Amino acid sequence: MARPPSRRPGYDRKAQYGLFASYVVAVSGALAGLLLVIVATFDPTGFAVIRATVAEITRPASITMRQLVSGFGTIDEQIVAYFRAGSQNAALRRQVDTNRTRLIEAAAIEQENIRLKKLLQLVEAEDGEVVAARLISSTGGSTRRIARLAAGRAQGAYPGMPVRAPEGLIGRILTAGPNTADVLLLTDSQNIIPVRRARDNIAGIATGQDDGSLEVRSLNAGNNPFRPGDIMVTSGTGGLYRPNIPVAIIVRSDGDKAIAVPLANPARVEAVIVQRPYEATVTPVGSPSPTESPPSASPTPASPAPASPASPSPAP
Asked: Which residue intervals make up region (Disordered) (predicted)?
């Protein structure tokens, strides 16, 4: 049987000191643990203070060890993410492109809802509305300023009917088919509209210039009272266009005429309404105007005339 190794360190003082130190540490640890158990049992408040102090002292070491453990624990995930970065970036780019398209569509739908709400308010306020439709195209290469309307005779749109948008007048129907119609725009030279200045009712005539603008002339020859910023609306003179429809805004004066631009831009307007032609009524002389209330049906009886004094009878 082999002799068991001796636990004595022999004559090596370094080994003796190490063995003694290990005994001292073990005994000290046991005593410290026993002391902590006694303190925790008989003085919980003091034990809580000791525990908080130890936690504060060991906090930096705990944070460092936590970071080391987390770093070593996620090494495999970081390696996989490194090799998958290319595919992930491609997927994220596709998602960003999809989200950008959806944002653009949402913004377009929001603008369309705003325009349709304005049109709905206009339809509810107008009593001469026939049909609401969309402008679907325009004659870009033609010398005439014409837009195509997605409504025709089947929907009640006939030549001569005015067409307007929430922002103002668009023009009038020139020709109408079964389900489409051509709208002669305000800016066409064949379109002449009686207008007036909104703030003081000065009358004028607006004529298209085939270049996207209108020429406005006063009814008084040689006099141009219109200035930039003036708003022109329909006057209702001659019928066809209802009064007080916004038409254009004056941008500059040019001698005896003024240049204006339409308030309703057909390039930005999608939905419009077709109205019945306006029939101006002429009030006969002596009859009450439409705004005046008619006279009462039961006239007030006239008061009797005072009796004339009796003439003296002739002498016999």
From this structure: 280-316
